[in-house]
Design brief:
With 236 residues, this protein is α+β, with helices and mostly antiparallel strands. It has 4 helices and 11 strands, in the order H-E-E-E-E-H-E-E-E-E-E-E-E-H-H. It has a domain of 141 residues: Nucleoside Triphosphate Pyrophosphohydrolase, CATH 3.90.79.10. A hairpin with a 5-residue loop joins strand 9 and strand 10. This is Nudix hydrolase domain-containing protein.
Length: 236
């Protein structure tokens, strides 16, 4: 006879539940994602700490470099002594006038093409040169001129300052009026050109111009312009 009893379950084998399996998989996925995020955060923190360490090391290197430079500077100063102040420049300017023609002697400029300037130069204080001696030397070196039997008349001394108000030069201005001139060709100085070659300095030309033209030519040279106004032509 056929048995009508209910089917038996096999012991030791749990029943398959697909819903529970999906939940378990999702739980595992979430946990895996959390672990990955935690690992990524740890890596980011490590990178931040590493950058901080590198920055600190760089700052320490720069600080040490500055300290080394300062130490070198102090040692160099101890060897060479205190830094010498730059001496104030003593510039000489010469005005030569001819009352018969009403003209002033100017020279062609070496630096500016077509410009006319007064004979000028610097006093040689290292050689203990006086301003009057410098006038004679500069006239010969710059213009090839020697003055016969006349001493220069001092027009005045003008002070030049920089933008900070510090004095950087004294301009000693002199005049020869109706002087007897002897012109010669002075020895040319050797200068270095743009190609680095030693060449003779170009000879300057002497140009007699009316007093008003001399004033106009020196508008961009305040000391020369002031001296011209103080000359025998300017006082008439």
């Amino acid at each position: 006879m056929l048995s009508t009893s209910s089917p038996r379950r096999f012991s030791g084998f749990p029943l398959f539940n697909p819903v529970q399996q999906k939940l378990q998989q999702r739980k595992l996925q979430r946990r895996s994602l959390q672990v990955q995020q935690q690992q990524q955060q740890q890596l980011q923190l490590q990178e931040v700490e590493q950058r901080k360490i590198q920055q600190q090391q760089q700052q320490e290197k720069e600080k040490q470099l500055q300290q080394d430079k300062e130490q070198d500077r102090q040692e160099q100063a101890a060897l060479t002594g205190p830094k010498k102040k730059k001496p104030i420049r003593q510039a000489i300017g010469i005005i030569i006038t001819d009352s018969k023609t009403g003209k002033v002697l100017l020279l062609t400029s070496r630096k500016r093409e077509g410009a006319l300037v007064l004979p000028r130069g610097d006093r040689n204080d290292d050689a203990q040169e006086t301003s009057e001696e410098a006038v004679i030397r500069i006239l010969y070196e710059e213009a090839g001129i020697r003055i016969i039997n006349q001493s220069p008349k001092r027009l005045g001394t003008y002070t030049e300052g920089n933008k900070r108000g510090k004095i950087i030069a004294h301009h000693w201005m002199y005049e020869f009026s109706d002087a007897k001139l002897i012109q010669s060709i002075p020895p040319r100085k050797l200068i270095t050109n743009a190609e680095g070659e030693q060449v003779e300095q170009k000879q300057r030309e002497l140009v007699w111009v009316p007093y008003n033209e001399a004033l106009a030519a020196t508008l961009d040279r305040p000391m020369s312009h002031l001296a011209l106004k103080s000359s025998s032509f300017g006082s008439t």
